[in-house]
Amino acid sequence: MDLLGGKMRKDARKVAFSLIYEYLFTNTYDDLSLEQFTSKTDVDDKVFVLDEADRDFIKGIYGGVVKDIDDYRTKVSALARGFKEERLFKVDLAILMMAVYELDNTDTPIAVIINEAVELGKIYSTENSAGFINGILAEYTKEQHKD
Predict the structure, then answer these.
(1) Rounded CA gap, 125 and 27, in Å?
(2) Domain range spanning residue 70?
(3) Rounded Cα gap, residues 88 and 72, in angstroms
């Protein structure tokens, strides 16, 4: 199974997204939620198995975003020209912060990160979110990750 973009990593991203989304409401890094999400094999009523690499991936993204949450809020807000952070859907904000973290801190291909973020937007947010997320991340990669 491809660990960078395969089904297992897709499920791990859903878990990381869920934890970051929860954090946006609680403002608390929750070890209990982290443990429950990574030991439980049920997201969206679908059963899946996380291996140790997936658990480490989730912990890295969740911990990394939460540790520098203000920086990620600032980055996303700056890219969302014309939208104050308060106007961004929390789902979109969580997806974007997670994707920006992953773009900056992993060797996952840029196209995979953007595609996965867009897919999360299609599943969990509004009908316009996928295009919004794609546009924000395209702008960010153009500014930060010139290949």
Answers:
(1) 21
(2) 7-144
(3) 13
Q: What would the two tokens of residue 16 be?
A: 């990381």
The DSSP result for 6-52, as a single string, is SHHHHHHHHHHHHHHHHHHHH-S--HHHHHHHHH--EETTEE----H
pTM of the model: 0.85
Residue 54 lies in a domain: yes
- The CATH number assigned to the domain holding 99 equals 1.10.940.10
pLDDT in tens, the chain (147 residues): 344 445 568 888 999 999 999 999 999 887 777 777 777 555 555 666 678 888 899 999 999 999 999 999 999 988 887 776 667 899 999 999 999 999 999 999 999 999 999 999 999 999 899 999 999 999 999 987 554
* Number of domains comprising the chain: 1
Q: Please answer whether residues 69 and 23 qualify as being in contact, where contact means their C-beta atoms are separated by less than 8 angstroms.
A: yes
State how far the alpha carbon of 142 is from the alpha carbons of 5, 48, 110, 135, in Å: 21, 35, 11, 11
The neighbouring-strand residues paired with 43 are: 46
